[in-house]
Amino acid sequence: MQKILYILMCFLIVLVSQAQEVEQDSTEVTYLIIKGDSVPRTQIDLDEVMLLQKLKFDSKKDRIRYLILRKKTIKVYPYAKMAADRLDSLNKRLETITNKGDKRRYTKLIQKYIEGEFSDELKKLTRTEGQILVKLIHRQTGITTFDLVKELRNGWRAFWYNTTASMFDISLKERFDPLNNKEDYLIEDVLQRNFQSGRLKRQKSVIPFDFYDLTNKWLYPDKLKDAKPEQ
């Protein structure tokens, strides 16, 4: 299974030119002394680099679909990240509040802030963009949009939110499932490529999965067949 590799040739060249080995007593521990850093280090922390496979499409139509999906995913991802950040801040703040009344007031304040921040922009989203956003919110928080509304408001309001969304063919109960849904895998592919390019700010998925395993499943199924032992 292909794992994350650390390949930064230019950086290594700089290290070779600026680093020197130092032996410490009889333990023979090798340290790296880097120019501009007064603290000796036994290792260098590098950013993780994910090696992404070149995408292949069965037809021109599939390629166009991917490009459209990419455009929509890039557009709505910041809203999903914002929702996850706000929810995380809310939960951390609530942990420090002991009074139930103060908790309710603070929760309502955050609710109004989120709604005010989102409402005007979300009205501009298309149906497919709205559904992608619902999936990404689940990816970022591990909670469906329906349960999120239910938790912050109440079950009755969540029911009406979902009913209204259903009129536009959007389910607030939709989950992000790249293991069983190829479109969700392609959404994740879009995210990983744009995290790597710096276009989108990385936020790790709360939903557990191995991206390389997903790539083999959806793009290289023949490899999995070849890897299976003969009975």
- N to C succession of SSEs: HHHHHHHHH
The major pleated sheet works out as: none
C-alpha termini separation: 22 Å
Q: Which residue ranges are poorly predicted, with pLDDT under 50 across at least 5 consecutive positions?
A: 1-35
- Mean pLDDT comes to 77
How helical, in percent, are the residues? Answer: 55-70%
Oligomer: single chain
DSSP helical segment count? 9
- Structural class of the secondary structure composition? mainly alpha
Would you count the extended β strands for me? 0
> Rounded to an integer, what's the Rg over CA atoms?
23 Å
Q: Which descriptor suits the 3D outline?
A: globular
Q: DSSP strand (E) fraction?
A: under 5%
Description:
By secondary structure, the protein is mainly alpha-helical. It is 59% helix and 0% strand. The chain has 9 helices and no strands. The chain has helices spanning 9-18, 60-95, 100-122, 127-141, 145-152, 155-167, 182-197, 211-219, 221-227. Helix 2 (60-95) packs across helix 4 and helix 5 packs antiparallel against helix 6. It is globular. The relative contact order is 0.10. Residues 1-35 have low confidence and may be disordered.
Give a nutshell description of this structure:
By secondary structure, the chain is mainly alpha-helical.
Fold blueprint:
Layout: H1 9-18, H2 60-95, H3 100-122, H4 127-141, H5 145-152, H6 155-167, H7 182-197, H8 211-219, H9 221-227
Which features characterize this protein?
231 residues, mainly alpha, 9 helices, globular
